[in-house]
Specification:
The complex is a heterodimer of chains A (98) and B (392). By secondary structure, chain A is of the alpha+beta class. Chain A has a domain of 67 residues: Alpha-Beta Plaits (2-Layer Sandwich), CATH 3.30.70.20. In chain A, the strands form two sheets. Chain A has a two-stranded antiparallel sheet. A two-stranded antiparallel sheet of chain A has the order 2-3. Chain B is α/β, with parallel strands linked by helices and 392 residues long. Chain B has two domains: 245 residues, Rossmann fold; 134 residues, Rossmann fold. Chain B has a six-stranded mixed beta sheet, with helices on both faces. The longest helix of chain B has 17 residues. Chain B is globular and about 70 Å long. The N and C termini of chain B lie far apart (51 Å). The chains are: A alpha+beta (98), B alpha/beta (392).
Chain lengths: 98, 392
């Protein structure tokens, strides 16, 4: 007899696969989108350090790269912490879809 | 062969835990369960067990630590009462939903307010819907036997659910009774080696406990949780049959007393059943066809089996040692649910008794049986729900 769908679920809702959170793309939650302005970036990596979702990508050379919009929830911590260059922020928040 | 001793209910349960020797116990003291865990902590101190005893700052933490230890892959136990169980509330659902086989003696005690340390079933009934299996014990022997059987039920690979083993606070927990202990080696053999399922400490196979599951799958997980509960009665009876082979003591989903040819029945759980049996004997001597049904397993509730056992009676009194304010007594609701499946429905009344440790005296049982006799004759229920033993 074939099992019903709910009978195939792992007991006690245990996730038996490591690192499966990568499959859960949380970028869809975002209403505010961080925008990286490269000319104002001093490569301090504060954004990378503060991001709670590891959504700031880093190049092979250890340089700041583009945001990973698949996971960025748009919390804005990076924009708040960004020291910018001479008073000009390297990260600004923009309304999503504009 | 076992040893016959004179011990309290708490002492007997502590002995059961000692013989089972769990990997982890996390507990916080609360009257009247304090004495149980205090005795067990003595066994830890004296090296009689090699349990990791985690002394925590609250019952919420106690159950949290038990959940962590069980998920890690250990055999886990704790004990509590009343407010302690209430403080565990959210964690109780997590233990059951995560399918962790934790065993917890619950020394039944009233809930505040007003503050009261004595026995009633308010605490256990409050945990009715948490997904834990629940056993209620009449005396110290049953509390001891149920605790040992609980591990087998909880840890059965078809079940993997936490189990609460209840006994009445003070009435059983602090009264010295004759108890027959099973030999250590026999308990060890009966309970067997703990088999971990998806243990977190299996670091070669990393996994996550406690995921977020929303509208896409939550309903299916609850359906699966309901299904596992339906498998419990069979396992409980198998474990009981094996236990009977070892001890000669018979357990079922419920106990019946002089019920086979009865025209009327009293349904009551735990220590009050003992008093009721005595009074039933007196009425039987006078030719009154009265019997008793004492549920042992309250969760899952064996609706069909109980309906079958009560199918021939004309009138039933359900005695609840807990109230659902503004509703019927919790045991009454279950019996009413069972009776609904019967072709001819008996007349039913609900009596709330013994709250906050108020003594359940023989005259209360007599009062109930007298009312049942009239009820069986007339079939007319005067008041469905009533308090008995109230000072007026």
């Amino acid at each position: 007899m074939s099992k019903k769908y709910w009978e195939t679920l792992p007991q006690g809702s245990v996730v038996l696969e490591a690192g499966s959170s990568a499959k859960f793309k949380t970028g869809g939650w975002r209403s505010m989108r961080p925008k990286w302005i490269e000319e104002n970036c001093i490569q301090c990596m504060f954004c990378w350090m503060y991001c709670p979702d590891m959504s700031v990508k880093v190049t092979a050379e250890g340089k700041r790269a583009e945001f990973d919009y698949d996971y960025c929830k748009g919390c804005g911590i990076c924009a708040l912490e960004c020291p910018g260059k001479k008073g000009n922020k390297a990260i600004v928040m923009e309304e999503e879809g504009k | 062969m076992g040893k016959i001793v004179a011990v309290t209910g708490n002492e007997a349960c502590a002995q059961a835990l000692k013989q089972i020797n769990p990997d982890v116990c996390a507990a916080y003291p609360i009257t009247p369960a304090t004495d149980l865990m205090q005795r067990f902590s003595g066994f830890v101190n004296d090296g009689k067990v090699d349990t990791e005893l985690v002394l925590v700052e609250s019952e919420h933490s106690a159950m949290s630590a038990c959940i962590g230890a069980a998920a890690a892959g250990g055999r886990v136990a704790t004990a509590t009462s009343s407010q302690g169980l209430a403080l565990m509330w959210e964690m109780l659902y997590i233990a059951a939903g995560t399918r962790l086989p934790i065993v917890m003696p619950l020394v039944n005690r009233a809930l505040s307010a007003p503050l009261n340390i004595h026995g009633d079933h308010s605490d256990g009934m409050g945990a009715r819907d948490t997904g834990w299996i629940q056993f209620y014990s009449e005396n110290a022997q049953e509390a001891y036997d149920n605790t040992i059987q609980a591990f087998r039920v909880a840890e059965h690979l078809d079940i993997r659910l936490p189990v609460i083993v209840c006994m009445d606070g003070f009435i059983v927990s602090h009264s010295i009774e004759r108890v027959e202990y099973i030999d250590d080696a026999d308990v060890k053999k009966f309970v067997g080696k703990f088999v971990a399922v998806n243990p977190l400490l299996d670091i070669d196979n990393p996994k996550s406990y406690g995921p977020l599951i929303l509208t896409d799958l939550y309903h299916e997980y609850k359906r699966a949780q309901h299904e596992v509960m339906t498998r419990v009665p069979k396992v409980v009876l198998e474990v009981a049959a094996e236990f009977e082979k070892m001890t000669g003591r018979r357990y079922g989903l419920f106990e019946t007393y002089r019920l086979e040819d009865a025209e009327m029945a009293v349904v009551v759980m735990s220590s009050a059943a003992g008093t009721t049996k005595d009074i039933i004997d007196q009425y039987r001597d006078r030719g009154v066809k009265i019997g008793l049904l004492k549920p042992r397993m309250f969760r899952p509730f064996p609706f069909a089996e109980i309906a079958n056992a009560l199918k021939h009676v004309k009138a039933i009194a359900v005695l609840d040692r807990a109230d659902s304010f503004g509703g019927m007594g919790p045991l009454y609701s279950e019996i009413a649910g069972a009776v609904m499946q019967m072709d001819t429905k008996p007349a039913m009344i609900n009596k709330i008794f013994g709250l906050g440790g108020r003594d359940y005296l023989p005259d209360q049982a007599e009062h109930v049986i007298d009312e049942l006799i009239t009820l069986a004759k007339t079939g007319k229920v005067q008041a469905v729900k009533e308090y008995i033993g109230v000072r007026e």
